[in-house]
Amino acid sequence: MLQVRPATGHRPARRGRGVHMHESLRFGTFRGIAIGCNWSVLAIAALLAWGLADGFLPAEAPGYRPHEYWIVGVAGMVLFLGALLAHELGHSLVALRRDVAVESITLWLFGGVARLRGEARTPRDELAIAIAGPAVSLAGALSFGTAAVVLDGRGPDIVVVVLAWLALVNGMLVVFNLAPAAPLDGGRVLHAVVWGATHDRARATRTATTAGKGFGFLLIGLGGVLLVNGDIGGAWIGLVGWFVIAAASAEATHALLTTALAGIRVRDVMTADPITVRDDVPLDVVVADVLLTHHCSTFPVVDGAGETVGLLTLRRVRAVPDEQRPRLVAGDVAVPLAATAIARPDDSIAEMLEHSDPDAPGDGRMLVFEHGRLVG
Questions:
Q1: How confident is the model at residue 342, as a pLDDT?
Q2: Any residues with CB less than 8 A from the CB of 150 and at least 6 apart, and which?
Q3: DSSP symbols for 77-145
Q4: For the whole model, what pTM was predicted?
């Protein structure tokens, strides 16, 4: 699956589009792409290994010892997660080749997400990026299937069974991901086709996200039917449907916001020539003489030479107990400039809002500089 955020040359607070998952474990980088996983993958990995070793493999390949089932089960789990990672790398490497930067790949509860920084410039580029992941999964399905056929009757049954299972799940991954519904890869394909046919990117987004929401409701309905008939797996299908609806809705909202804010620049909405606070002013004085007087929630912090050194927010001041405020100065509590989001007056407000994060140290606020001078 792909997650796209507009390209920008600044250091914005980090936020992606759609349903966002936080990376908990970092594995490393490849071609400049950060690779990691969410904590939920650990639970899925354990359940998958247990399901293979204690259920599927003994049923399909009886006669082996428990530790042999566990060895093959864990190997199958690792290969499955590797196949998910390969799927996302397929997207990412083609994106890099098409001059679209890739920020990270994160494995999580519902598979994997390649987070692109920037959008494809043409429908053809988007189509190539979208189909790359399923193409890798299809190659994996064919490879595992071929290995299972070659080893059938020649190798251990338990190995043949797990190879056949890997071929099946990779094939299912291809079919599911090619459903023409955002945010799935098939939704990106649909978006590229409609965009290319109509030359209207907004219309393509509406089409793909509407299809995504419809597909999500279909999955929820299917899951409900399965649950009513006693199949607990229906709960998982319903949960996937909910995710598809949520992600498609988020993309649709993002598209509407981008359209509404088209042409609006940072200078049009910023607070020009903001009131600043010296970094050596005691915090209790800041509260009495600045916060309560000017009724603002955010102030740039400057040093004795007038250089901007940080950003002071109301939330950070409130976090300091009253009795400690006389002993601290504004510079002690301010967000350092290096950790503050920066914008320029002519930057697109849509891009800046896309990256604004209320949970970041600066509470989603940005400092605006022009030619090295603070202007907002």
A1: 87
A2: none
A3: HHHHHHHHHHHHHHHHHHHHHTT-EEEEEEEETTEEEEEEES--SSHHHHHHHHHHHHHHHHHHHHHHH
A4: 0.74
State the CB neighbour count (10 A cutoff) for residue 363. Answer: 18
Alpha-carbon distance of 262 to 240, in angstroms, equals 33
Mean pLDDT by 10 residues, the chain (376 residues): 50 39 75 88 92 96 96 97 96 94 86 83 96 97 97 94 97 95 94 96 93 96 93 90 92 81 84 90 89 83 92 90 91 90 85 64 81 88
* Look-up of token digits 């909405």: 269
Long-range contacts of 167-170 (CB under 8 A, 24+ apart): 167/140, 167/141, 167/142, 167/143, 168/141, 169/80, 169/83, 170/83, 170/137, 170/138, 170/140, 170/141, 170/144
The rounded distance, in Å, linking the Cα atoms of 2 and 112 is 9
Q: What is the dihedral of CA 163, 140, 178, 73, to 10 degrees?
A: 30
Answer whether 240's CB lies under 8 Å from 320's CB.
Answer: no
Q: Rounded to whole angstroms, what are the CA distances from 360 to 3, 34, 192, 266, 341? A: 20, 20, 34, 19, 9
Fold of 266-374: CBS-domain (3.10.580)
Give the pLDDT score at 136. 97
Domain map of the chain by residue range?
Answer: 2-260, 266-374
Q: Which is catalytic among the residues 23, 60, 68, 88?
A: 88
Residue 347 φ then ψ, to 5°: -70, 150
Active site residue 88: yes
